[in-house]
Inverse folding.
């Protein structure tokens, strides 16, 4: 089996955050046993994440390519899906526009959204749009600085897979999916707000 | 007021459990400082100079007597016997230990209170008019809408990690007592040509480092679209607001950089997808929440009370208190009383556990068990019978909350400043105290009349100095605490930002400076002009001339003395 290809993240400069490199390192990924949370269970991850800086030909097997690569090599990558019968994934960074995937959204088995740091909340809107506006039905995966205390919100905006940061205990993190048993607003995993589900008058 | 149902209670209880776990993981070293910070901030917990500071939410300023007693209990058991009411209708405790915070939150949850989203880069506790529901000039009671926004914003999954903090205020009256022009979003009720009440949505206002008045981004939004429109604004902000520089991360900067028209176009394009979607409000839900804010069982009273009129004639001190601390009421025979938390010698907004307990008793006896916190850092008993006003005054005097100074010079608005806050450049409380000490003649204060002095210890402007008629801002000058002075700021519909009068002053000069500003006003005022009117008419020059002219002489004299 091929090794995952991911860039070792450079030491962050104080107050500056890399926008383009997923917050993943090869070593740390391995220490987490290549596991992710998918649909509430801890499973082995069979996908290889391709870094934005990776310019070589793609390895065989299941790969998640950066948006730029998808846009640049769209025909070849489409052929990989349709002719070689290879499922394909694509990943977006916080500043990237999910609308760029709209016309091909059903081609992807996985769409991953990078959280350059956990307090950067752009990915929540990106996920919401991918699910509710562009109708993505496949695996929506949070990657990067993915920590336990954000998982509940991520699940609500439509993520069903979580590549928990490699130095964190994934068995601990999965517990957060059950932090709350009730919510007020509508969101992707529960479009109706509380007042349209449970607080409606009896006659409804 | 709003009473939790089982869903509200479950959500708050589960939050307590979640935060207990987060605190335990932090103390066990499983969460780093950086990882814990946003989590604790979204529970109102700051690490301050002396100890953690816990900011407890008072949604739109409304409290029951039971809740106030719980706050008194928390002050006694976990703090040093007092709390501080803030300029955003919340209360802060300055001395709890980190380990005790989960327990405090558990205690708060038993009285339907919490510290959710009182800090951090999320949608903050919603604020409103402290006279909501009783004011003469009200188009609509804003409290149901403030409560609906509280629920919509509580743990909103898409908007928990915004570029920066986000504050929403709701106003339902003709006069704007909620400061909607100075919020990230202001929701302002208006009556449409067809007689419906709708909302003007203002966006991009704020104080802080870059003070800006908000702009109307949408006129006359029908009420059922409130949530979908807020979602559209927040989504545009969450996606495009700056995250590279925290000083340019507020929505006001995005609005400024895009321009209002472009910003509006983005919001409207987003809203086109959300409008009439699942989050559209229903009349049932509006009615369900509004039913919590019906009038109490007022007695049918005459608009005048002979007993009260006689007291006014007989007792000058009482009459004086009434003239400042009592606000008219829509219900004949009732009035709203403001308890002043601005007694000289006490930090503005501070209340002890004993005072809080006494206020709860007053509310139970005279005001249907409810208390309100104002953004001017005072407390209000909203439904007092005219015939009870004298008794309330006597009780308020006993607990030190009857200073007859609402809206007067000594009703100073101030943040906790450098005595407590680790963000502050300079202290606020000693400045407030020095000014109050200087103006110790009540007749003179009454003669000066309406004036708002606002003090902030730093650019974050928690003391709202930009909108003070006299605004005082703590600045760092080569490592020393100095104060910059503005005049002419104001709140309300014709809100304005104050203008800086010149170079800053040392702490011990501040009482003199304020005195000179006041003397300038007294010399130049026309009859019936308040400080703000005179300042607007004559501009800053005469004030500046007097302050700096004398200042030069004063400093020279000081030098000579040394």
């Amino acid at each position: 089996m091929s090794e995952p290809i991911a860039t070792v993240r450079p030491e962050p400069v104080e107050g500056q955050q890399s926008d383009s490199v997923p917050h993943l390192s090869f070593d740390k990924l391995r220490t987490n046993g290549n596991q992710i949370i998918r649909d509430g269970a801890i499973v082995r991850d069979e996908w290889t994440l391709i870094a934005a800086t990776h310019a070589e030909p793609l390895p065989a097997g299941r790969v998640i390519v950066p948006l730029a690569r998808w846009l640049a090599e769209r025909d070849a990558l489409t052929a990989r899906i349709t002719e070689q019968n290879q499922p394909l994934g694509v990943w977006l960074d916080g500043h990237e526009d999910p609308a760029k995937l709209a016309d091909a959204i059903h081609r992807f088995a996985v769409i991953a959204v990078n959280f350059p740091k956990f307090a950067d909340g752009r990915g929540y809107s990106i996920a919401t749009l991918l699910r509710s506006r562009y109708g993505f039905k496949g695996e929506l995966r949070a990657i990067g600085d993915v920590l336990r205390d954000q998982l509940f919100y991520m699940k609500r905006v439509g993520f069903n897979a979580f590549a928990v940061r490699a130095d964190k205990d994934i068995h601990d993190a999965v517990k957060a999916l059950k932090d709350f048993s009730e919510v007020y607003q509508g969101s992707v995993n529960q479009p109706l707000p509380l007042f349209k589900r449970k607080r409606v008058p009896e006659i409804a | 007021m709003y009473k939790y149902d089982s869903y509200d209670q479950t959500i708050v209880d589960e939050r307590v459990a979640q935060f207990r776990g987060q605190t335990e993981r932090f103390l066990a070293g499983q969460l780093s400082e950086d990882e814990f910070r946003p989590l604790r901030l979204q529970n109102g917990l700051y690490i301050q100079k002396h100890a953690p500071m816990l900011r407890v939410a008072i949604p739109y300023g409304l409290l029951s007597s039971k809740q106030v007693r719980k706050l008194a209990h928390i002050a006694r058991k976990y703090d040093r016997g007092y709390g501080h009411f803030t300029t955003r209708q919340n209360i802060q405790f300055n001395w709890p230990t980190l380990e005790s915070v989960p327990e405090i939150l558990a205690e708060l949850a038993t009285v339907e209170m919490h510290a959710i989203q009182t800090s951090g880069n999320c949608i903050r506790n919603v604020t409103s008019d402290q006279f909501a529901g009783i004011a003469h000039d009200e188009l609509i009671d804003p409290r149901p809408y403030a409560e609906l926004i509280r629920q919509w914003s509580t743990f909103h999954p898409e908007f928990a990690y915004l570029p920066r903090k986000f504050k929403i205020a709701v106003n339902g009256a003709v006069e704007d007592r909620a400061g909607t022009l100075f919020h990230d979003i202001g929701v302002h009720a208006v009556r449409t040509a067809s007689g419906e009440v709708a909302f003007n949505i203002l966006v991009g206002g704020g104080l802080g480092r870059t003070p800006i008045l908000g702009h109307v981004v949408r006129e006359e939004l029908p009420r059922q679209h409130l949530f979908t429109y807020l979602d559209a604004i927040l989504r545009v902000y969450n996606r495009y607001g700056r995250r590279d520089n925290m000083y340019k991360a507020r929505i006001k900067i995005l609005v400024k950089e895009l321009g209002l028209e472009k910003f509006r176009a983005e919001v409207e394009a987003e809203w086109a997808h959300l409008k009439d979607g699942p989050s559209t409000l229903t009349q049932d839900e509006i009615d369900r929440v509004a039913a919590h804010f019906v009038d109490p069982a007022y007695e049918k009273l005459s608009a005048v009370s002979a007993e009260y009129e006689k007291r006014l004639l007989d007792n000058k001190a009482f009459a004086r208190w009434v003239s400042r601390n009592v606000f008219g009421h829509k219900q004949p025979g009732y009035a709203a009383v403001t308890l002043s938390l601005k007694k000289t010698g006490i930090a503005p907004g501070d209340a002890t556990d004993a005072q809080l307990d006494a206020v709860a008793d007053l509310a139970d006896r005279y005001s249907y068990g409810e208390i309100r916190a104002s953004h001017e850092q005072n407390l209000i008993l909203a439904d007092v019978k005219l015939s009870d006003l004298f008794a309330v005054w006597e009780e308020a005097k006993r607990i030190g909350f009857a200073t007859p100074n609402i809206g007067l010079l000594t009703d100073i608005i101030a943040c906790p400043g450098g005595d407590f806050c680790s963000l502050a450049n300079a202290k606020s409380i000693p400045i407030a105290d020095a000014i109050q000490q200087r103006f110790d003649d009540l007749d003179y204060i009454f003669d000066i009349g309406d004036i708002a002095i606002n003090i902030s210890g730093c650019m974050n402007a928690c003391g709202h100095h930009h909108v003070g008629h006299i605004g005082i801002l703590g600045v760092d000058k080569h490592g020393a605490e100095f104060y910059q002075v503005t005049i002419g700021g104001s709140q309300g519909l014709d809100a304005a930002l104050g203008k800086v009068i010149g170079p800053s002053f040392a702490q011990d000069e501040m009482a003199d400076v304020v005195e000179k500003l006041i003397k300038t006003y007294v010399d130049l005022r026309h009859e019936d002009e308040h400080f703000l009117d005179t300042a607007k008419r004559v501009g800053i020059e005469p004030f500046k001339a007097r302050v700096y002219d004398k200042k030069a002489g004063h400093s020279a004299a000081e030098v000579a003395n040394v």
